[in-house]
Structure prediction request, 490 residues.
Amino acid sequence: MQNNLFIYNSLSKKKELFKPLHPPFVGLYVCGPTVYSSAHLGHARGAIIFDLLNRYLLHLGYKVRYVRNITDVGHLEDENAGEGEDRIAKKARQEQLEPMEVVQKYLNTYHKNLEQLNTLPPSIEPRASGHIIEQQELIKEILEKGFAYVVNGSVYFDVLKYNEKYKYGKLSGRILEDLQSSARTLEGQDEKRNSFDFALWKKAAPEHIMKWPSPWSIGFPGWHLECSAMSVKYLGDVFDIHGGGLDLLFPHHECEIAQSTAAHGKESVRYWMHNNMITINDQKMARSLGNFITLDQLFSGDHPALKQAYSPMTIRFFILQAHYRSTLDFSNEALLAAEKGLQKLMKAVETLEKLKSSSDASTFDVANLKKKCYEALDDDLNSPILLSHLFDGVKYINSVFEGIGKIDTSTLDALKELYNTFVFDILGLKDESAGKSDEKLTGELMKIIIELRQNAKNNKDFPTSDKIRNELNLIGITLKDRKDGVDWER
Prediction:
């Protein structure tokens, strides 16, 4: 299998030719979300970038096992310190729900949003709470090798001891002395030997909801542990690619390397890939900072920072317009430009189907365009360069349509195949025009139904009014009575 794909390896800090361990099989592990809130634009970037990688590997003929985890336990508010309340447990307390009810609620919306963004589902989507035994077994291995210690029912990774044999900080470039000097004095730190040691298992307080029995205490696993345990379970002791957001590089991925190396005597990951952040006003967009815009808000336009609603494919195109390792700044102007660019590209694909070939020789080199498209993707998934090449082709398509350029049958067929392959199969874009007409019709019908219900209420015909609301609920449509009228959602 010929392969010219170069990937920027965050570990070596350089682009490397991708050589899978067991071709044609590729093992890909990507850190998924902690499901305690609605998915936002930052989540969309990672999902779309690794969907692009997955799609391209599949297109090249590889058999990809794509594993994306779901964090549903153990992610503490202050993970650096290993302290604070579990984020899901906290949300459960705030919303007066069971923790797994919170998980399912936001996992459902996450899956819905990713389907709207046209991402392919992973091969396996394991949950941390479903792999407690595997995590405990991994802790036992680390303890047996002498790289962890037990204090008061909690188990901590001994970073200093690990660093004597291996190098801690090789992914992030962090130096232990710097970490030690910058450490803060925090409640609960006194039971750790060093401030930079991290929890493998935490003894649960009596009021803690999510806890399991273990050889050390009734407690819960540390956040970093789940990925080390689940990636190896499904992809083997050594696998090809581990992906995630740049914000996970330290401490999460650094700790993963340490855990896996301590347990197995070797690193598990051959290529580390990190997508950069989406910023808003030059600040990272994140739930913890309170400056995020959910995907549902983007699709509906229901957010004060938005001038209008943006379709899922506009969001996908917006993200693909920037290289995954560069920062991407949110603005309405950028989204509007993406919307126009997407429309222009889709119009050209539509125009291709209308073109008639001529007997004259073509005035365009499709083979060269195809070569450039592959070169762009092979250069560390350079989607913006790929799009620029596709738009070069758009100029030619439009010139033929206007009667200026010439196109023969073989060139026309080759162009159709090229655009179907790169626009739809690899970039994962799709034509939303059919869906928009359906949405418009649905909106018009809902206006009529809401008006009929309002007339029933005005006439004090409350049984009819309630029947309309209840029947809509049965098909997943909720009516919301507001001061300025009635809104609906599904």
Remarks:
- Residues 184-188 have pLDDT under 50 and may be disordered.
- The chain has three domains: 20-275, 280-426, 435-489.
